[in-house]
Design brief:
Elements (H helix, E strand, L loop, with lengths): L12 H14 L12 H48 L2 H7 L7 H17 L3 E10 L2 E7 L4 H7 L20 H6 L4 E2 L4 E3 L2 E11 L5 E10 L1 H51 L9 H9 L4 E13 L2 H8 L1 H18 L5 E6 L2 E6 L4 H15 L11 E10 L3 H17 L4 E4 L3 E4 L1
Parallel strand pairs: 10-11
Antiparallel strand pairs: 1-2, 1-6, 3-5, 4-5, 5-6, 7-9, 7-10, 8-9, 11-12
Helix pairs in contact: 2-7, 9-10, 10-11
Length: 430
């Protein structure tokens, strides 16, 4: 008689076969399943590493950029104050009234600003202004100087030309300047001449009275070139961060994979018999506890024991005894299929638990095992086994089914061995 799957020996083969996968989804004797390299772990680790490293790289660079801009704004404020100090406040006050305008007066008031402009190469536009009822007008403009005009190629603003307010200007900029404060645009500006910062400082006459204010456009060409260099360094740093984050993510994911693999191997070794590869007693106990409760289903427990193993060890050596054990394990493994549980629980004693199997099907499984071992295989001689069978209905109770199967096995041994006995039903010989 050849080996037959458990499903084919159950009360309702089609029903049993259809429920195999469902049963496996509800229980598994393996807590640590074999899993491939997990992308989720890799992405999570890489993302966390990238976030940390980007924070380390980007935040300092952002803070450094703000610090550099603030230092530059302070410098522009000082330059604007210096420019305001060169203006003759009394002459400038006269020019605030268009009725007092003359080229000579304009030239005398402008001359100190031209000298100042010529002495500072990073300043490309210097002018004075006055506010009238919320509107602002140009007064002096160094661009009228031929030398400066040819150098910077600027268009001079006409005397009392209206100033077009830029978006960078706050609503209270005139109030701050009128109160004696120096005001600088909060960020850089861009026009046809390039990037620049503008600083404004109040002009005072000899009596300390407010007489308009100076404007200085500070060239940011060098600053922007440096910022571009820093930005390129930042991009390179972010690329390096991305590579490092990917490497960290890979290493963490690989460590997680190896750890899971080691835990799985450790768990496998703790629930499996080293000689046969079947479950051990611990593994069988865990697996049986996971069998779903079904009041309408019968569960079969088969306790299989080699007849005369001690004699085999004494006459032919322990290697022959181990060979008999491994052959029995292979026979059991080939005979039972599906959701059946097979375990070596000690010495030459094996336990088979077959869910949804009645006594008749269990007796057929026992007969197949007995018949298969009765035939010599290669260099291995034939051997006999005895089988005790217990049938449980509803909940699979390991201790109960084992105890009753053991009693049936004792009866099979007492009745002459090489046979199976179902608990409570008398002998079932192979």
């Amino acid at each position: 008689m050849g080996p037959t799957a458990v499903e084919s020996l159950c009360d309702n083969p089609s029903e049993a076969a259809g429920s195999v996968h469902a049963s496996r989804s509800r229980r598994s004797p393996m807590v640590f399943r074999r899993r491939p390299f997990q992308p989720g772990v890799f992405l999570a680790a890489a993302g966390i590493a990238a976030l940390i490293m980007v924070t380390i790289v980007v935040v300092p660079q952002w803070l450094a950029q703000r610090a550099r801009l603030e230092v530059l704004r302070l410098h522009v404020a000082e330059v604007a104050q210096l420019a305001a100090s060169t203006v003759d406040g009394d002459l400038h006050r006269q020019l605030l009234d268009p009725a007092n305008y003359s080229p000579g007066l304009y030239g005398r008031a402008l001359e100190p600003l031209v000298r100042f402009h010529s002495a500072i190469p990073d300043v490309f536009y210097v002018y004075t202004m006055v506010d009238r009822q919320g509107e602002t007008f140009f007064v002096l403009d160094t661009s009228v100087s031929p030398a400066l005009t040819s150098k910077h190629k600027l268009r001079a603003s006409a005397y009392m030309e209206r100033f077009r307010l830029r978006a960078e200007y706050s609503s209270d900029w005139l109030t701050q300047i009128g109160s004696g404060q120096t005001w600088v645009t909060p960020t850089f500006q861009l026009d046809d001449y390039g990037y620049f910062l503008t600083g404004h400082a109040p002009i005072k006459d000899s009596q300390g009275r407010y007489s308009g204010f100076v404007g200085v456009d500070f060239d940011l060409g060098y600053y922007m070139a440096q910022e571009k260099r820093f930005r390129n360094i930042g991009i390179g740093s972010l690329a390096a961060v991305a590579l490092v984050a990917l490497l960290i993510g890979f290493l963490v994911a690989r460590y997680h994979f190896d750890l899971q693999h080691q835990m799985r191997r450790h768990y496998d070794s703790s629930i499996r018999d080293e000689l046969t590869g079947l479950l051990n007693r611990r593994g069988a106990l865990d697996a049986v506890s996971r069998i779903p409760t079904d009041p309408q289903s019968a569960h079969a427990a088969l306790l299989v024991d080699i007849d005369g193993l001690k004699a085999i060890n004494d006459t032919r050596g322990h290697a022959a005894g181990d060979a008999a054990i491994t052959r029995l394990a292979a026979t059991i493994r080939a005979t039972v299929r599906g959701d059946a549980i097979a375990a070596r629980i000690g010495g030459d004693e094996f336990l088979i638990v077959a869910p949804r199997c009645d006594g008749q099907a269990a007796a057929k499984i026992a007969a197949q095992i007995i018949d298969h071992l009765a035939i010599p295989a290669g260099n291995e001689p034939a051997c006999s086994v005895s089988v005790g069978i217990s049938i449980e209905t509803g909940t699979a109770d390991f201790d109960g089914m084992y105890r009753r199967a053991d009693e049936a096995l004792y009866r099979a041994k007492a009745d002459g061995k090489n046979r199976s006995v179902i608990y409570g039903r008398g002998n079932r010989e192979a």
